[in-house]
């Protein structure tokens, strides 16, 4: 296998833009989750990106296509360009000396902003006859009242067409859309494209926005959202009083390069992807539920690929969505692989809100910067593990704190984990410099 280096980090979320701005916010224990004026109920607290910007000017011939990007795609574009800039290159020279066909692009998307089909409301209203839709009228009114470009804004590869053209990445590629873990899946595909000799550089991007009515009501119906009884502090991963997550939005991107290529151009190397595991764990429950140990296999696979175990890790950053069953399953998964060796664990989503497909790549970026600072990030709002874990003494093995801790000396690797509804899971081992 070729050694694959991480040379570019890009991220935008409710706490800012860029990896440096994010680690400063984390060190200051800031959260981007805020009360949204004029809202109530499940909408009252959100992790909203307030200042969207791009690090490069979009070429004139492509600028017109920007109006077709949905909210999540604009965030993904911002993060991708931020990663390219961070890698010390420009759009024009992004891969100087590398043919476009050797530049891979993998995008993970979880944008639900068009799920509610609110753009169809004027046409539907005009076609209503009492409580019945007149479909002939609907067809006619849709021609006048609905933009024909709604389909372009709704498809999963919405970002891909623009980003690939802006960066001239025309090598191995795909767009993934499988909720939270698809960022890790995109990163695995990016890594494989280089390891298998099909690409010299690869960009993995995760993006999404969950802040529109229909998906939020659906997530509430599944019991995933916090009731926000304590405001922004209600998002408390792994805490015994947890009651779900607070939704957010964002984009995150990591640029990978062949290590020899990165060294030859004098690039800053943040670290290396050493192991990745992607699995599906199924529950025996008749309804949608969480498997007993939802992230066990993906973690073991990633560690085996690195030929190591948890004793070499500085910390584990699990999914930490703050749900009762999900967080408990993650803790059981970690306990099953640590062989009684205590391990630092941190949940990062309360800093930004749950960003869906952007969260796992975003948390890898924050983890890399935390390693640079030699800290274990605090888990905001955490107080105590579930009583069952405390009574069994496992709170002495799973080391979680609402304060930053010093990273253990001599340990330069960490494990970042994500999972989604239905049991998909992804784990990534990163070794930092």
Molecular structure report:
This protein has helices at 19-27, 60-63, 71-86, 121-127, 135-145, 150-154, 158-167, 182-195, 213-221, 259-264, 296-305, 324-335, 349-352, 359-373, 387-391; strands spanning 4-13, 16-17, 34-35, 45-46, 103-109, 128-129, 132-133, 173-176, 201-209, 249-258, 271-280, 313-317, 343-344, 375-376, 398-399, 405-406, 413-419, 424-432. It is α+β, with helices and mostly antiparallel strands. The strands form 5 sheets. Strands 1, 2, 5, 8, 9, 10, 11, 12, 17 and 18 form a 10-stranded mixed sheet that branches. β1 and β2 form a beta hairpin. The protein is globular, with a radius of gyration of 22 Å. The model has no long low-confidence stretch (mean pLDDT 93).
Question: Quick recap of the structure?
Answer:
Helices cover 32% and strands 21% of the residues.
Count of DSSP helices? 15
What is the percent of helical residues?
Answer: 25-40%
Total strand segments: 18
Query: How far apart are the termini?
Result: 19 Å
Mass-distribution shape: globular
The secondary-structure class comes to alpha+beta
Mean pLDDT: 93
Describe the secondary-structure layout.
Layout: E1 4-13, E2 16-17, H1 19-27, E3 34-35, E4 45-46, H2 60-63, H3 71-86, E5 103-109, H4 121-127, E6 128-129, E7 132-133, H5 135-145, H6 150-154, H7 158-167, E8 173-176, H8 182-195, E9 201-209, H9 213-221, E10 249-258, H10 259-264, E11 271-280, H11 296-305, E12 313-317, H12 324-335, E13 343-344, H13 349-352, H14 359-373, E14 375-376, H15 387-391, E15 398-399, E16 405-406, E17 413-419, E18 424-432
Helix pairs in contact: 1-14, 3-7, 4-5
């Amino acid at each position: 296998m070729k050694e694959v280096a991480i040379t570019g980090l890009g991220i935008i979320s409710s706490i800012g833009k860029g990896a440096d701005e994010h680690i400063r916010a984390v060190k200051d224990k800031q959260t981007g989750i805020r009360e949204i004026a004029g809202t109530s109920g499940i909408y009252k607290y959100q992790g909203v990106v307030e200042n969207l910007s791009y690090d490069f000017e979009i070429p004139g011939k492509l600028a017109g296509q920007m109006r077709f990007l949905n909210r999540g795609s604009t965030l993904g574009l911002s993060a991708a360009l931020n990663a390219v800039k961070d890698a010390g290159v420009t759009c024009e020279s992004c891969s100087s000396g590398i043919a476009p066909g050797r530049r891979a692009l993998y995008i993970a998307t979880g944008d639900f902003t068009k799920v509610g089909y609110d753009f169809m409301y004027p046409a539907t209203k005009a076609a209503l006859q009492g409580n019945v839709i007149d479909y002939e009228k609907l067809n006619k009114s849709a021609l006048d009242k609905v933009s024909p470009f709604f389909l372009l804004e709704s498809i999963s590869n919405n970002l891909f067409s623009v980003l690939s053209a802006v960066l001239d990445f025309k090598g191995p590629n795909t767009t993934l859309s499988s909720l939270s873990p698809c960022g890790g899946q995109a990163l695995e595909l990016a890594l494989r494209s280089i390891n298998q000799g099909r690409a010299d550089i690869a960009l993995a991007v995760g993006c999404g926005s969950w802040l529109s009515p229909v998906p939020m009501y659906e997530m509430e119906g599944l019991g995933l959202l916090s009731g926000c009884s304590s405001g922004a502090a209600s998002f408390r991963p792994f805490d015994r009083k947890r009651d779900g997550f607070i939704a957010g939005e964002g984009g995150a991107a990591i640029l990978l390069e062949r290590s020899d290529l990165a060294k030859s151009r004098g690039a800053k190397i943040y670290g290396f992807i050493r192991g990745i595991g992607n699995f599906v764990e199924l529950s025996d429950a008749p309804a949608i539920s969480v498997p007993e140990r939802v992230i066990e296999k993906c973690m073991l696979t990633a560690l085996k690929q690195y030929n190591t175990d948890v004793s070499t890790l500085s910390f584990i950053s699990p999914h930490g969505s703050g749900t009762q069953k999900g967080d408990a399953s993650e803790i059981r998964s970690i306990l099953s692989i640590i062989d009684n060796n205590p391990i630092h664990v941190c949940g990062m989503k309360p800093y930004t809100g749950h960003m869906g497909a952007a969260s796992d790549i975003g948390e890898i970026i924050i983890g890399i910067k935390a390693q640079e600072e030699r800290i274990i990030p605090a888990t905001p709002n955490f107080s105590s593990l579930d009583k069952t874990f405390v009574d069994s003494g496992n709170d002495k093995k799973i080391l979680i704190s609402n304060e930053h801790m010093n990273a253990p000396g001599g340990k330069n690797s960490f494990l970042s984990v994500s999972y989604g509804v239905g049991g998909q899971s992804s784990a990534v081992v990163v070794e930092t410099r």
